[in-house]
Write a structure and sequence with these properties.
There is one protein chain. This protein has 375 residues and is of the alpha+beta class. The chain has eleven helices and 13 strands. The longest helix has 15 residues.
Length: 375
């Protein structure tokens, strides 16, 4: 672990609305959850237990108790938001499963569907399909007895009725015979879930040893809702624009609201050689705070190592040998208004200050040296 959240970052993240929580108001995401639960509970003679866990979870439940190896790269602070050395903001809804299994061991039922839904926290790129705070749904059927691959396929068929689907082999530390669930959407395969047989080691660590088995499926709720309604941009799911918000309480097809023109700003920056799109996205979100939703995408258009940079370019960037040059396109498009050039340049400079790690800066709208903290 290389970094932990500051108190301000933690407070900001915990203040993000969980769209799966009815207490925060109705939202179509909740309808996707309810329909999935109803489809499975109506097919199986199982009881249903809904788990609403804390957003801050132990590292053990987020990783160890699910079978992740201590050296797995996903544990790195590059991908996980650490609160301290023992706690993280849950990076997947599966982090709620170990606690649910322990409760099941303490209060057994012969056939139960565990429902774990909520907002999760990722370090992710910024584009129309990705968010640093997506929503996920884990559905685990745990039985006193034996389940098999045929039961998993029955589960999948119940969740995507009428759709063409396929299961592609995938490895997960918490499943056996793991698979990725893709559905056919407008002639192309789109990933909507990961699934498999519940790993016996995960069950045993929770106190469910011999005689227990299960099915495990994790679904991306944002993408599923976008597919169901035909929504083109993940930011729409949190929009407060009346013409959009009024459409987020049902599963009817989305009626497009007039699209506002984008504002594009191209940045040439020096960044650490190991930086990826996820790192850029996270830094932009931190820098812009409440204005982050204005950013439609942060796209890496070209990458050049320090060794391949001409000397004038190195000097222009103030780059060092442990850095590389990225050409980045920043697309700014609020969902409810058009930005002025001045507003766009201010946002451009705030993002640039967060991204550029060279010693020479090129600010929008003026010339001359300026400390990056003042952007």
């Amino acid at each position: 672990m290389s970094a932990t959240l500051t108190p301000a970052q933690l407070a900001r993240d915990l203040a993000v609305r969980d769209l799966t929580d009815p207490a925060a108001g109705p939202h179509a995401v909740q309808l996707v959850v309810d329909q999935a639960v109803e489809a499975l509970a109506g097919r199986w003679p199982c009881s249903v237990r809904r788990i609403a866990g804390d957003r801050v979870v132990t590292v053990a439940d987020n990783y160890d108790n699910l079978g992740y190896h201590p050296a797995d790269v996903t544990r790195d602070a590059r991908y996980t938001r650490y609160v301290d050395d023992r706690h993280v903001l849950r990076s997947h809804s599966t982090a709620l499963v170990p606690g649910a299994l322990r409760n099941l061991a303490a209060n057994p039922a012969d056939d139960v569907l565990l429902v774990c839904a909520g907002v999760v926290y990722r370090r992710d790129s910024i584009d129309r399909l990705h968010s640093g705070t997506p929503h996920q749904l884990d559905l685990w059927r745990i039985v006193r007895g034996t389940v098999a691959r045929a039961d998993l396929e029955e589960m999948v068929a119940a969740l995507v009725p009428g759709l063409r689907w396929r299961l592609e082999p995938r490895r997960h530390p918490y499943t056996v015979d793991g698979a990725q669930l893709d559905v056919d959407h407008d002639g192309r395969w789109v990933e909507v879930a990961e699934c498999g047989l519940a790993h016996p080691g995960v069950l045993a660590r929770a106190g469910l040893g011999d005689g227990w088995s299960g099915l495990a499926l994790g679904m991306g709720l944002d993408r599923m809702l976008m597919l169901r309604k035909g929504m083109p941009d993940i930011r729409l799911l949190r929009s407060t624009e009346p013409a959009v918000a009024a459409q987020l309480t049902d599963l009817a097809p989305y009626r497009p609201v007039s699209a506002l023109p984008p504002v594009r700003r191209d940045l040439s920056i020096a960044v650490p050689a190991g930086d990826r799109a996820e790192d850029l996205g996270d830094r932009v979100r931190d820098a812009l705070g409440a204005d982050a939703d204005v950013v439609e995408s942060v796209e890496i258009r070209q990458e050049t190592s320090y060794a391949r940079l001409p000397a004038p370019a190195r000097a222009r960037l103030g780059a060092t040998p442990d850095q590389k040059n990225l050409l980045v396109r920043l697309v700014l498009r609020p969902l409810d208004r058009t930005l002025s050039d001045r507003e766009a340049n201010v946002l451009r400079d705030r993002a640039y200050a967060a991204l550029h790690r060279g010693s020479v800066h090129e600010w929008a709208g003026f010339t001359g040296p300026r400390d990056s903290a003042g952007a």
